[in-house]
Amino acid sequence: MNAQQVLDLLKKGNEINLILKNKNGEFYVNHKTNTLQNVYSYNFVYGVYGDLLNESKIDSLTHSDDEILQAIEKFLENGNLVPLSELPKIFSMTYV
User: Fold this and answer.
1) 3-class SS letters over the chain
2) Domain regions of the chain by residue span
3) pTM: predicted TM-score of the whole model, two decimal places
4) Which of the residues 7, 48, 54, 81 has the least number of beta carbons within 10 Å of its own beta carbon?
5) For 35-48, how does the pLDDT look when each residue is reduced to its tens digit (9 = 90+)?
6) CA distances from 56 to 24, 37, 49 (A)
């Protein structure tokens, strides 16, 4: 999926949680919290969360679709977005 397709999917209003996985199969997590960096949609709020961004969170409450699209593009430059359901119980983490 490209960034525009991801944004269109998020805007449909379904609950979505896509996590960022690099080419080595490692999942990106945030330094301070070790939480997964993700692209999400929940209750008609959608956005991008993670240390890869200048801000830790860019969402539809406070940002434009263009800003969210740019954040998704930045994520896709660093890996692939996969559904949270594909996260194994034991996984390798990586940081930005």
Assistant:
1) CCHHHHHHHHHCCCCEEEEEECCCCCEEECCCCCCECEEEEECCEEEEECCCCCCCEEECCCCCHHHHHHHHHHHHHHCEEEEHHHCCCCCCEECC
2) 3-94
3) 0.92
4) 54
5) 999 999 998 899 99
6) 24, 9, 6
